């Protein structure tokens, strides 16, 4: 919607009925403000008491997802959209040097997990599955997805600006001005985000081989006596299901990243 507004469409769909119409940019700014307020409230909540201890993956908490590099990356791209929109109103002649692109690059790079082996952990000499690593990978992929979509909005606005600049350039060939630096900076940002996406894709691809190389019989859900063979067989069946789940998760994550990688390639100016 913001991209359409940059193109001069004006107010488009997305407003509730019987309410005052707002521009897509103002709606985006309001949503960003609501998101930041939600983050502050979530981070202020203490961990609730757990009355039941259940072995298995821990709960996914919104306060953890929208903190650190995740919220920084998303809000930094929103700043990029606002910056591109301001240029669509003022023109490239008033193009201040801002650091919005660098902030997106830095926060995106922090989304990349550096240690694939974090999928496992040693506990009293036994290898156990650490679900936190998989949760962090999924959160990073979701953040990359949001970033990619919003970079598409930036690309649409910048392509309009570039077309306007090319028309002026053709009318005044004697100037031989090089294209504004903002276009090169955006293209470099796309390459940087694409590189981070490729790294996440590689990590997701390695999840299945890392897990498949394990000796499932050596893994433990809990400490049990060696003589309890029935429980050991039950554990083996559980780990087999976990392995199948990891394989499915790895495949789905790779597919999402593959589509985002393809879309990023179309955003170059």
Number of helices in the DSSP assignment: 8
For the report, how would you describe the main beta sheet? 2 strands, antiparallel
H/E topology pattern: HHHHHEEHHH
Q: Give the rounded overall mean pLDDT.
A: 73
- How much helicity do the residues have? 55-70%
Structural account:
- This protein has 269 residues and is an all-alpha fold.
- It has one domain.
- 64% of the residues lie in helices and 3% in strands.
- The chain has 8 helices and 2 strands; from the N terminus they run H-H-H-H-H-E-E-H-H-H.
- The chain has helices at residues 2-6, 24-44, 62-65, 69-90, 100-109, 131-171, 181-212, 229-265; strands spanning 120-123, 126-129.
- It has a two-stranded antiparallel ribbon with strand order 1-2.
- Helix 2 runs antiparallel to helix 4.
- 23% of the residues are buried.
- Residues 1-23 are annotated as: Disordered.
Topology:
Layout: H1 2-6, H2 24-44, H3 62-65, H4 69-90, H5 100-109, E1 120-123, E2 126-129, H6 131-171, H7 181-212, H8 229-265
Antiparallel strand pairs: 1-2
Question: Top keywords for this entry?
Answer:
269 residues, mainly alpha, two-stranded antiparallel ribbon
Summarize the entry for a quick read.
The protein is mainly alpha-helical and 269 residues long. It is built from eight helices and two strands; from the N terminus they run αααααββααα.
